[in-house]
């Protein structure tokens, strides 16, 4: 089978970020310790499975060092007035943080396709939609 040269620091980083430990990974990937020592390399299929398991983009495994991911919002969590020592967030936290923006974009796209005009209002409030000129308004106000 064809193997791919995955970066050892990125493999470690992805496992740590996904909160996976050696025993869990050895059960799933028999050669996990060999990958970390550099004695063996994963096949492309194994690397894809590992990327799926850790919710990591497969391209990251070809970088020499793990990427520095920045939260899209300020992180005010502290422990005794000190910032957290481990800023790496599990992928589930990042999905939860990014979900409202994604939902807003989907709503905006759907409304635009339905013929609604997009009007910008005050910056913090975002956008509102104006019904197309031929649309009939229901008694509840929804188009």
The SS-based structural class is mainly alpha
How many β strands by DSSP? 4
Q: Mean pLDDT across all residues, rounded?
A: 74
Radius of gyration: 23 Å
User: Biggest sheet: strands side by side, in what order?
Assistant: 1-2
Give the percentage of residues in beta strands: 5-15%
Shape: elongated
Number of H- or I-type helical stretches: 5
The portion of residues assigned to helices is 25-40%
What string, H for helix and E for strand, traces the elements in order? HHHHEEHEE
Largest sheet: 2 strands, antiparallel
Ends distance: 57 Å
Low-confidence stretches: none
Short descriptors:
single chain, 143 residues, two-stranded antiparallel sheet, 40% helix, 5 helices, mainly alpha, two-stranded antiparallel ribbon
Summarize the structure in short.
By secondary structure, this protein is mainly α. 40% of the residues lie in helices and 8% in strands. The longest helix is centred in the last third of the chain and has 23 residues, at 91-113.
Would you spell out the secondary-structure blueprint of this structure?
Elements: H1 8-17, H2 22-28, H3 32-37, H4 44-54, E1 78-79, E2 82-83, H5 91-113, E3 117-120, E4 127-130
Antiparallel strand pairs: 1-2, 3-4
